[in-house]
């Protein structure tokens, strides 16, 4: 047992090391980190003498998916989900089920020998797009917020749809029977029951948060809740995925109101680290497992595998175009009320939206979590082929759109409408004006000196003036004085940090003092960059 544990620790450290090293190289080459990780780990797996790394399929969903789904839901805007709910549902439910069915039909037409349940399993695995890679690219390019919101909202809900369909397909394969009516009823039961369990667990978690009053404990409870929502639903035979998403949405609405600023900052940093480790580990893992998968495909020629992989990837990418264009425009012709209340996206945006269906970690996790064997002891049918085809689909949908999307966006003339910036400016202006009103009240009855109140008021008046000038195209976006203030503050912080490091090196202060003052400088520098002081 100790030897097995040692191998597990070594494998985990190897995955994290590869993930960390891949980030600067991927940025330098211009590829999404996910692609670089898969290709790099595949190359590493070909090194002679390297032991095969195989993960227990039952571990994948339980270990990797809950934090991913919970965090995605936690940071999702409930307001934006409601605002664009029609488009999100049509993509996250309609498109996922359409893609699942289309891939199943294609798998049967290719003569792979798969039964309908196995073909639907393949379709369910490759159907949900992952927004992380697409969002990372289009945020840099600048796109209308509506487009970005729809992509992120679709990614959140489509995972639940695809994984419930995945669970139904697995059940049909194991039992050997499949009924569309029974499957539909099971789908609804799993979804509704899972959502209920997720909300109950999240409410219980929030009640605990209100009593903790400790930053570290509150952040830890977030991770515990992500697993609790999933595991409770799974133990009850319901959808752990939808339970996790529902719990994450509820926690995301309540947690910021009930916790301190330090808790919110630390929880955001905590999730970034956890998701970085999970994403890197899973994408690296699939590459390291490919030699083991390929040994199970010796009955297929390389030409056959190339044809099968290309065909399935093409169907997955084409399904998005086939669904999105008719749904976007035909629905508005059939239902005029939709056209009045929600104007259609421009054709250029619809084209780009159809091109960003990149597959990612959820498809990987689903493929890796397919059981090795059936309850009878027989090998799970076509497991190696499904993992291989998933691998090809992920590579194709990541590599092709990611390398062509910047060019496509420029060619289509898609640019940021400035909606987010206008809302941000309006919000900042309202906040600063509220501060000035409060300072006016404090002048009449407070223990603060007039000089301090005057200096503070001058600072916020300058910010208000700068924001108001931003709204006038003929005037400079920022006063030179404001820019100089920011540069001067940066120089001051750098000087303070340099002196603090000198005092520590000369042992003039204890390390505890150094870390305390250094943290204060970190907070000041962070505020400087985020607020543009």
Explain how this protein is built:
The protein has three domains: 2-42 and 57-417, Up-down Bundle (Na+/H+ antiporter like fold), CATH 1.20.1530.20; 419-464; 479-533. By secondary structure, the protein is an all-alpha fold. Helix 12 crosses helix 17 and helix 13 packs across helix 17. It has 21 helices and no strands.
CATH topology of the largest domain: Na+/H+ antiporter like fold
Which value, in Å, is the CA radius of gyration?
A: 26 Å
The stretches of 5 or more residues where confidence is low (pLDDT under 50) are 473-479
Distance between the termini: 56 Å
Number of domain modules: 3
Query: Mind summarizing the main beta sheet?
Result: none
State the secondary-structure class: mainly alpha
Q: How many helix segments?
A: 21
The number of strands is 0
Order of helices and strands: HHHHHHHHHHHHHHHHHHHHH
Helix content: over 70%
Strand content: under 5%
Overall pLDDT score: 78
Overall CATH class of the largest domain:
Mainly Alpha
Query: What is the CATH architecture descriptor of the largest domain?
Result: Up-down Bundle
Shape: globular
């Amino acid at each position: 047992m100790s030897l097995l544990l040692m191998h597990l620790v070594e494998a985990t450290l190897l995955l994290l090391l590869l993930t960390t090293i891949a980030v600067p190289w991927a940025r330098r080459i211009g590829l999404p980190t996910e692609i670089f990780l898969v290709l790099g780990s595949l190359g590493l797996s070909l090194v002679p003498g390297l032991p095969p790394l195989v993960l227990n399929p039952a571990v994948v969903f339980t270990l990797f998916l809950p934090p991913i789904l919970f965090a995605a839901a936690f940071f999702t805007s409930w307001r934006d989900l409601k605002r664009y709910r029609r488009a999100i549902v049509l993509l996250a439910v309609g498109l996922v089920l359409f893609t699942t069915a289309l891939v199943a039909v294609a798998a049967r037409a290719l003569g792979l020998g798969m039964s309908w349940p196995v073909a639907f399993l393949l379709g369910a695995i490759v159907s949900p797009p992952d927004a992380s890679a697409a969002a990372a690219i289009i945020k840099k390019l600048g796109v209308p917020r509506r487009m970005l919101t729809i992509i992120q909202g679709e990614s959140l809900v489509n995972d639940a749809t695809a994984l419930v369909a995945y669970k139904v397909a697995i059940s049909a394969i194991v039992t050997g029977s499949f009924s569309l009516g029974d499957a539909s009823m099971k789908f609804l039961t799993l979804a509704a029951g899972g959502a209920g369990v997720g909300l109950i667990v999240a409410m219980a978690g929030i009640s605990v948060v209100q009593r903790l009053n400790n930053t570290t404990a509150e952040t830890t409870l977030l991770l515990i809740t992500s697993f609790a929502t999933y595991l409770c639903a799974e133990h009850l035979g319901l959808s752990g995925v939808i339970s996790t998403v529902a719990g994450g949405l509820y926690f995301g609405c309540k947690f910021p109101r009930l916790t301190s600023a330090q808790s919110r900052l630390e929880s955001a940093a905590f999730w970034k680290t956890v998701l970085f480790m999970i994403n890197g580990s899973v994408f690296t893992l699939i590459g390291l497992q490919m030699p083991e998968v390929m040994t199970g495909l010796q009955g297929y020629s390389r030409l056959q595998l190339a044809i099968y992989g290309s065909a399935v990837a093409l169907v997955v990418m084409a399904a998005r175009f086939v669904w999105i264009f008719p749904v976007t425009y035909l629905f508005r012709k059939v239902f005029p009320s939709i056209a009045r209340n929600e104007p259609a996206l421009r054709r250029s945006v619809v084209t780009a939206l159809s091109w960003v269906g990149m597959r990612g970690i959820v498809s990987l996790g689903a493929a890796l979590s397919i059981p090795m064997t059936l309850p009878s002891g027989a090998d799970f049918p076509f497991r190696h082929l499904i993992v291989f085809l998933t691998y090809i689909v992920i590579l194709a949908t990541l590599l092709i759109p990611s390398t062509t999307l910047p060019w496509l966006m420029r060619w289509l003339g898609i640019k940021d409408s400035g909606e987010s910036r206008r809302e941000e400016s309006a919000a900042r202006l309202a906040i600063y004006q509220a501060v000035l009103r409060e300072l006016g009240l404090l002048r009449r009855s407070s223990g603060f000196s007039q000089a301090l109140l005057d200096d503070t008021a001058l600072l916020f008046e300058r910010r208000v003036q700068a924001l108001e000038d931003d709204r006038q195209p003929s005037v400079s976006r920022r006063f030179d004085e404001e820019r100089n203030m920011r540069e001067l503050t940066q120089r001051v912080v750098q000087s303070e940090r340099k002196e603090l490091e000198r005092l520590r090196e000369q042992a003039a202060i204890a390390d505890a003092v150094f870390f305390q003052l250094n943290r204060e400088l970190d907070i000041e520098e962070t505020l400087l960059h985020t607020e543009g002081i």
